[in-house]
Amino acid sequence: MRISVVVPTYNRRAIVTRTLERLFAQDCPRDSFEILVVVDGSTDGSAEALGRMRAPCALRVLEQENRGLAGARNTGFRAAQGEVVLFLDDDMRCELGLVAAHLTAHCQEEGIASFGALFLSPESPPSLAAECFKREIGAAHLSPREAEDTTWLREDCVFSNASLRRETLLSLGGFDESFRMREDLEFGQRLFATGVRPVYLPNAIAHQYYAKTAADLIRDSEAFAEADLNLARKHPQLRLPAQVSSLADESGWKARVREWAARHPALVDNLLGPLCAAGERWIGVAALRNVGVRALQFRRRAHWLHAVRRLEAHSYAQAEPEEAKKEREP
Known about the structure:
Oligomer: single chain
CATH superfamily of the largest domain: Spore Coat Polysaccharide Biosynthesis Protein SpsA, Chain A
Shape: globular
Number of helices: 14
CATH architecture of the largest domain: Alpha-Beta Complex
């Protein structure tokens, strides 16, 4: 069995070349894997730099117009020649046994999707955003998990260090390219509905270089709102924590506080922004760092819910019958 490693990239020449150097050193027979880098509309010379790299294994660089992560992954797996496809992000420092761990898992068992561990790279600049990554994504991988205890992946599947059979990808049509965010979660719902079982690989370890800022995370939270609404429309049966589907089940004073914050995100920023600034400035002080992270997480949720409610109101206005609109006119 052979495995194809698909690495999408966009305007991160220095980072993706470093990721590939680590992949070249994998403890895996060189004829058992290939690497496909999909340059998704980059304008920073990534394709030229990658073309100059000397690889000990098969390496292909595919260029395309910018179509987002889903489109880049689709291009990669469709061009793959291996029976198994491993998706990696372009900012990962992979431990030397990562590719072999994924390949071994599929050699031993069919009908699985293998998910490796994701941790924060120590090379990442210290920040509240990096702390959020550690506590939200990295925390899910800290405790060793048995292969049978993987239900958490059904709700929080991330295809940044994950592999599955190419024939499965083809049968499902790949990732939905209408999603510029949440493409992982959307694909995971269709994948697991077919009976594919998620398997956690604690020895397939990738360390992600994370350079986002608190402002980046807040902007992302508003962008995620549109994707989350699209996810709720496409899969109305889903009931996932922290998703649009869970809002109807929330009650009590916490829900009322969140709704108030969603109506006044600028005021929330003014109130909690100084706590974030203090945590950022004194990131090495545990108490201030913890307060800053909690404040940032609340601000992100407020901006996300504000965007959700705004988009819901816009959709309702668009769908409102013309007769009702005329009745309200003076």
